[in-house]
Design goal:
Largest sheet: 3 strands, antiparallel
Shape: elongated
Structural class: alpha+beta
Helix content: 40-55%
Number of helices: 11
Distance between the termini: 62 Å
Number of domains: 2
Length: 213
């Protein structure tokens, strides 16, 4: 492939992926030196080691989050991960911030996975946690925990109860699946430690039931 071919392939990859990884590029025949040349020419930008975007394609904050998620399985395309759920989701304070519930910062980016992920990136906050596919919605190519799951995870992450209360009210106003939320709370309260962690949410559900304002 010529450099012109590489640029065409990058444009196609960017069109489908937005942020893309070195491993994804290599699957399309784009070598590392072509990526380096594109960065030097101002056509592409390196977000972090192993992740790139084409100039002007995404906001910096969204790009950084997308890069971190994609690098948890760098060779697979987003459509492949959508078709076969791998359990890696954006959640907690990051999901709450993106969904507009509560008053949380998106960064450091909270990402859950069924296995432990070690990372030295200050912008990432990984945790081992089982997230079901039914508790995730795909938004802008990223798997975000739905509000019901987000509220549960805010409790498990020991966030401030007053901020959790604000998030609950905002989520209620947007629209909560109370049946799913109740089931998640019951299922997650399997140990005394987790039951105690979820008590702020359980109290909110008792004090501010469905339909109250």
């Amino acid at each position: 492939m010529t450099y012109s071919d590489h640029i065409t392939a990058m444009n196609e990859l960017s069109s489908s992926e937005g942020v893309f990884t070195t491993a994804q590029a290599q699957r399309l025949g784009i070598p590392r030196d072509a990526l380096a040349h594109a960065c030097a020419a101002g056509r592409a930008e390196r977000i972090c080691r192993g992740a790139y975007r084409l100039a002007g394609t995404q906001s910096r904050e969204t790009a950084a989050l997308a890069a971190l998620w994609k690098l948890t399985d760098p060779a697979r395309f987003t459509w492949e991960r959508q078709a076969e759920w791998d359990g890696v989701a954006v959640g907690g304070t990051t999901a709450a911030s993106l969904q507009g519930i509560g008053d949380f910062f998106a960064s450091p980016y909270r990402i859950y996975a069924p296995r432990r992920i070690n990372s030295r990136l200050e912008a990432a906050a990984f945790a081992a946690r089982a997230i079901n596919a039914e508790d995730v919605s795909w938004e802008q190519g990223l798997p975000l925990t739905r509000p019901e799951r987000t509220l549960v995870d805010l409790c498990l992450d020991s966030e401030d109860p007053s901020l959790i209360a604000d998030a609950y009210r905002d989520a209620r106003d947007i629209g909560l699946d109370y049946e799913r939320l109740g089931k998640l709370v019951r299922e997650t309260s399997a140990t005394p430690k987790r039951e105690k962690a979820l008590e702020p949410l359980a109290e909110l559900m008792r004090a501010i039931p469905k339909g109250d304002r």
